[in-house]
């Protein structure tokens, strides 16, 4: 409270104006252009009114499952391209891709739950009569439906709920209770954009289960709005950020991205495909093809976050370890 009051004083404004702002150093690019907050939200609300889906109705949950199809695009599997993959039977590969798809969606549910809380905290004091608040509420409603849809999909395939390791789940309580501004929206982008890149492939891939393709299509269509919202908010929140603010966000964001990306594949997916978990984990850890896919999946987020000054510093080590950069 004291800090907030101090920030509003004339002295603080003069002090801020003297600092070189990040945007002065890097001119606004196509990526970092942010429109007026309310106008953007108005457009997103109109798009949401035109195209929103209820997965409980849109997805044919009762349709027979063609068990000879892949659960997701096999090239996105953590074992694709390894010597172990070559040794696996076709059935094992299909079981593995089904479980990996469910595991990725499970990580999606985890981050969507975090995001819903961050969004609610973020708009808590704003005027609900504004398009900005109303779109944030629409996004929360989208995420509620997405999480149910992902959970339903795994259930339909008879797959258990894959979630991040217990300690990560509990350690993230701190993040979800406190993250705000560019940190909250930057973290959201990491989770939303890698899922988006994968699901764009799943929805087009005729080798993939029909349920997974429909689920992916719904998610890709609705997430496009969330990504736009998160990117623009990220830019706005950084407008007057100091070097110290940026450095702090960079650090926590790097840690967040590391745990999101390394939680995508639950170890138990390998056991479900009848593989030795330790052997499979080792094969995945050394799988250059998979690392390239992860980098490819994160490339758009990394490019954007780099433009706004949120990539760099000590957390780069973690981003490299997770093959994000
Ligand atoms: Fe979502
Ligand atoms: Fe989203």
In CATH, what is the class? Answer: Mainly Alpha
The biggest sheet amounts to: none
Strand-pairing-aware structural class: mainly alpha
The CATH homology group name: Ribonucleotide Reductase, subunit A
User: What CATH architecture do you see?
Assistant: Orthogonal Bundle
How many runs of DSSP E, i.e. beta strands? Answer: 0
CATH topology: Ribonucleotide Reductase, subunit A
Measured as a percent range, the helix fraction is over 70%
Which outline best applies?
A: globular
Count of individual helical segments: 16
Average pLDDT score: 89
Low-confidence stretches: 1-26
What is the oligomeric state here?
A: single chain
**Bound molecule kinds, no repeats:** fe (ii) ion
Whole-number tally of structural domains: 1
As a percent range, the share of strand residues is under 5%
- Give the terminus-to-terminus CA distance: 38 Å
Q: Give, in order, the helices and strands.
A: HHHHHHHHHHHHHHHH
Q: What's the Cα radius of gyration?
A: 21 Å
InterPro entries: AurF/CmlI, Ferritin-like_SF, RNR-like
GO molecular function: oxidoreductase activity
Pfam families: AurF (PF11583)
Organism: Rhodococcus rhodnii LMG 5362
Layout of secondary structure:
Elements lengths: L1 H6 L2 H9 L3 H4 L11 H14 L4 H4 L24 H5 L2 H34 L7 H26 L9 H13 L2 H24 L5 H29 L4 H20 L5 H5 L4 H9 L2 H20 L8 H6 L4
Helix pairs in contact: 4-8, 4-11, 7-8, 7-9, 7-10, 8-11, 10-11, 10-12, 10-15
The structure holds fe (ii) ion (2 copies).
One fe (ii) ion (FE2) binds next to helix 8 and helix 11.
Protein name: p-aminobenzoate N-oxygenase AurF
Organism: Rhodococcus rhodnii LMG 5362
GO molecular function: oxidoreductase activity
